[in-house]
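lol forgot to send this yesterday, sorry. struct tokens for the thing we talked abt
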């Protein structure tokens, strides 16, 4: 057990273990977005930082088939930040919220040595999509294309530049696909730590392993911050899902099936 999982296990209860906690028809999710951990201010504008910080939290709600409604912000800002930068940061938050009908209802601000952000999103769901529920023989798939976020990060780490439309800053969420196809999905989550790492979470929740239909390159399997959807479904719905995915212009990649064997993650831990 890695240190992150060890710490989380100290609070284990029935509501912990998914992208958010589902309680009485509501989903509560929270993520941190810290300078020098998740981003550097030299990489992104303050607008992009605010927009991405909010979008990655909204992603958790959508991945659980929940409609995000409200957000709470906690922002720790360096004393060197200017009013213009504050305005850009605020506009990034507001524009991300406006795109998905979310209202910012409160939070907290403090002075800090760097820019650290945490967001809590409160959502509604009549039928949440959990990580638990996969069965032997189910198919495993993901939306979109993987690997480009890791390429962008490597370029930034090497002091290079990325396009403003790069997936690292311009995240596309799959809300239409999830909302319209929830009844065909057995389990799922968003891909934030890389597909190999996130398959480990599905494996632990559902107690299944996976057999891949073809080899997945490590540079693809370990690419984090993709925010595509990783999901499993009964193979009887394969043609239906492929057809319906085209209606929402969502690329689908079926990569394997659930089997009775242990699963081993091939990536380094992202947190500890």
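and heres what i got for the seq, position by position
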């Amino acid at each position: 057990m890695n240190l992150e999982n060890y710490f989380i296990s100290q609070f284990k209860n029935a509501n912990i273990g998914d992208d958010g906690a589902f309680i009485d028809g509501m989903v509560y999710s929270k993520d941190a977005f810290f300078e020098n951990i998740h981003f550097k201010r030299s990489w992104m504008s303050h607008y992009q930082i605010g927009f991405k910080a909010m979008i990655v939290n909204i992603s958790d709600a959508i991945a659980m088939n929940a409609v995000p409604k409200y957000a709470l912000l906690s922002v720790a800002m360096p004393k060197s930040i200017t009013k213009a930068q504050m305005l850009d940061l605020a506009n990034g938050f507001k524009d991300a919220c406006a795109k998905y009908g979310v209202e910012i209802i409160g939070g907290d601000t403090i002075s800090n040595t760097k820019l650290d952000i945490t967001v809590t999103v409160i959502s509604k769901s009549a039928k949440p999509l959990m990580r638990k529920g996969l069965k032997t023989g189910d198919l495993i798939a993901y939306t979109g294309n993987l690997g480009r976020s890791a390429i962008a990060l490597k370029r930034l780490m090497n002091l290079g530049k990325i396009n403003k439309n790069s997936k690292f800053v311009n995240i596309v969420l799959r809300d239409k696909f999830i909302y319209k196809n929830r009844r065909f999905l057995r389990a799922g989550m968003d891909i934030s730590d890389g597909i190999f790492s996130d398959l480990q979470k599905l494996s632990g929740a559902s107690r299944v392993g996976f057999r891949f239909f073809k080899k997945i390159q490590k540079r693809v399997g370990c690419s984090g911050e993709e925010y595509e959807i990783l999901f499993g479904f009964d193979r009887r719905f394969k043609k239906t899902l492929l057809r319906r995915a085209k209606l929402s212009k969502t690329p689908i990649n079926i990569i394997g099936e659930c089997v009775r064997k242990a699963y081993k993650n091939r990536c380094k831990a992202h947190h500890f």
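DSSP finds eight helices and ten strands in the chain. anyway ping me if u want another try
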